[in-house]
Amino acid sequence: MAGSRGKRGGSTLAEVANAAGVSKMTASRVLRNTSGSTEETRDRVMREVRRLGYVPNRIAAAFGSDQISTLVGVCVPRLKSDLFGSVLDSINQTLSNFGYQTMIGTHEQSPEAEEAWLRAILAWRPAGVILSGHTHTRGTIEILRAQSIPVVEVWNLNTSPLDISVGFNHFDCGHEMGRFVLSKGHQNIAYVGAEAGAAGMGKVRQEGFKAALSDSGKDFVTEEVLVDRPNFYAGFYGTENVLNRISKVDAIYYQDDTMAVGGLFYCKSKGLKAAGDVGIAGWGGMEIASVLPERLTTTTVTTQALGKTAAESLVARIRGEPVQDITVAATRLVPGNTV
Amino acid sequence: MAGSRGKRGGSTLAEVANAAGVSKMTASRVLRNTSGSTEETRDRVMREVRRLGYVPNRIAAAFGSDQISTLVGVCVPRLKSDLFGSVLDSINQTLSNFGYQTMIGTHEQSPEAEEAWLRAILAWRPAGVILSGHTHTRGTIEILRAQSIPVVEVWNLNTSPLDISVGFNHFDCGHEMGRFVLSKGHQNIAYVGAEAGAAGMGKVRQEGFKAALSDSGKDFVTEEVLVDRPNFYAGFYGTENVLNRISKVDAIYYQDDTMAVGGLFYCKSKGLKAAGDVGIAGWGGMEIASVLPERLTTTTVTTQALGKTAAESLVARIRGEPVQDITVAATRLVPGNTV
DNA sequence: AGAATAAATGTTACCGGTAACTCAACTCAT
DNA sequence: ATGAGTTGAGTTACCGGTAACATTTATTCT
User: Fold this and answer.
1) Set of chain B residues whose Cβ sits within 8 Å of the Cβ of A142
2) Spans of chain A below 70 pLDDT
3) Distances (CA, A) of A88 to A165, A257, A324
4) A33 and A177 together in one domain
5) Which domain, by its residues, includes A43?
6) Facing residue for B102 by CB, picked from A57, A89, A103
7) Inside any domain, residue A296
8) CA B265 → C1' D27, Å?
9) B189 and B293: one domain?
């Protein structure tokens, strides 16, 4: 494909300008809608743009001007997840509306993976980054400081954020649910979660719940954290383990709704009734709950709003507009009838 | 933050080279491991790289050399989806291993949205793109031709692809399931789907199933395609509609497993037994099926393999290595006991 | 009408890397 | 010891836009 230094596909701005009989600069101005241009000049340039199929080269633009690129890096734990998927979708939508491109990465709850991703992404001189890890390596923090690049930490609420934090108060979610479950008279409460690799925010909700138990002089009668990703099967299996180990368990707090639904199915398979025999509480407000015969007791979370706010905050910071450093995204305990 | 043309964070290659007492070019070569350099030169450069916290500027690199960038654009219908999430995850992993960065976009089954995304992405001169739309606008096709950029179409199998196609044979999935459902003696079969905007590949599976019915001189007794995204509730609601309309329906083919599960729950709520009263067949092999008391009759699909193959094929094409133009990703009908 | 002002367009230099080429130093065979 | 071959390092030009400044053309005002 062309010689060593030949260009690939499209034509250049110079070619467009030449064909339109104007200078490169004029063509550039027309394309960016900066300052006034004559109706006629504008038309001439645009005609050639269409005729030649000119595609602007943002790499050259980002490079040539000091103007920061329109790339934004977003790193989430994983993509195969309703909740993170929803957040990412929302972030991407919003950024896209503001003219930014999203570059993704996944860290699977590994701070080192997050750092590796960050190093690779920074080479593209992004306008900003959105992180979702709850802990960062020393390296990550140093790099971000050195580059003085806008950063939004999402998902978990960080009260002393690197820059901006938009997240749920996981501790409070757990604490509130703990009080609720206790208020329903449950005595022997267990926790079932799943963490592959480093702990995510489920751990914090667990601690919040534990604090509520502690306020009543109690504690979890047992805790089961599988080495797995939170999914239906982990919930099913974790529940089996817990109930086999300590039969008096009369309520279980799950890391999230998928696991809670798994647990619910386990109970059903054993003829145990939710709430009556075993209270079941989840987190996340996932969709499946809406068609279960039971209304799952859970905490619904506003993933869309979270993503939107995160993206908007980042854009505002990039543009130098005033931004709220810490935003708590809404969560709401939905009683249901499984507790 | 510095004057009009001042640079933001890090130092430049020239600064590193200067500090190390070598030329820019030598430093560049050391960093890229090209040709030999003395152990000593290498050390001197790397020491300065670390000391100055130098982050290479890929924008400048991509711009300066004719070498195509390491960006790859990937456009999926939506991010909040287990199946697409899994594909995207797999694509991203694989590309990342090969040193590529993934830039995402969503099209929500709108060919126009796909084209708009493509135009924006091409401005970054990506090394290649991965599309998942089953139809493309004329504009999309023209642009891709003009840019002569590697393209992989995923998800649906395109027998005359723009470039490379890696996908499932949705028609065959439907056809196979149709034959299976018929073989179980069901007579009055309905279809329940959901399409927000343009039709996705569910439509093709529906046609495959229809063809199987046609082979036996039959047709769907009714078809219900809601204007919604495929989810549990749409399955629940669609089933209600279908059964209320035509009570003799004794089997339903669903657009996917989430909808089938929704339908299953509707049936349960009405005291109808799956298989016995109403046969239920889904598609996708989604996780929830694994904890249902029933084993859902469905077609499992290899999303991970699909993503991996798509990414690998794209990389091979980018590198000019031989590639298989069309790859059929595996699907398997899992009988279960709901039909 | 001619000067003052505003608007549209042109010129020049540069962003930070890398390809292609040139040059210097060192190795080795005759 | 001398010339050919090899290897490490330096020079130069350039990628395709855009900021800053210079210049021309159109408009307004006295």
Assistant:
1) 53
2) 1-9, 66-67
3) 16, 19, 21
4) no
5) 13-56
6) A103
7) yes
8) 75
9) yes
The per-residue pLDDT for B56 is 92
* Band of residue B8 on the pLDDT scale cut at 50, 70, 90: low
Same domain as B204, residue B115: no
Domains: count for chain B: 3
In a domain, B129, yes or no: yes
Per the domain annotation, does A4 fall within a domain?
no
- Do A290 and A307 lie in one domain? The reply is no
- Measured CA to CA, the distance from residue B266 to residue A62 in angstroms comes to 54
Let me know if residue A66 belongs to a domain.
no
Q: Are the beta carbons of B101 and A121 separated by less than 8 Å?
A: yes
Burial pattern B55-72, b for ≥16 Cβ within 10 A else e, equals bbbbbbbbbeeeeebbbb
Cβ-nearest to B9 among A5, A8, A147: A147
pLDDT at A252: 98
Same domain, B209 and B313: no
Nearest CA in chain B to A139: B53
Distance from CA(B35) to C1'(C29), angstroms, rounded: 25
For residues A317 and A323, the answer to whether their CB atoms sit within 8 Å is yes
pLDDT digits (tens, 9 = 90+) for B102-118: 999 999 889 999 999 99
Whole-number Å distance, CA A112 to C1' D13?
A: 41
- Does A57 contact B123 at a Cβ distance shorter than 8 Å? yes
How does DSSP assign A218-244, residue by residue? ---SEEEEESS-S-HHHHHHHHHHHHH
Q: Tens digit of pLDDT for each residue in B115-150?
A: 999 999 999 999 999 999 889 999 999 989 888 899
DSSP A122-178: HTT--SEEEE--SS--HHHHHHHHHHT--EEEEEE--SS-SSEEEEE-HHHHHHHHH
B235 contacts on A by Cβ (under 8 Å): 291
Are both A243 and A327 inside the same structural domain?
no
Contact B59 A56 (CB under 8 A): no
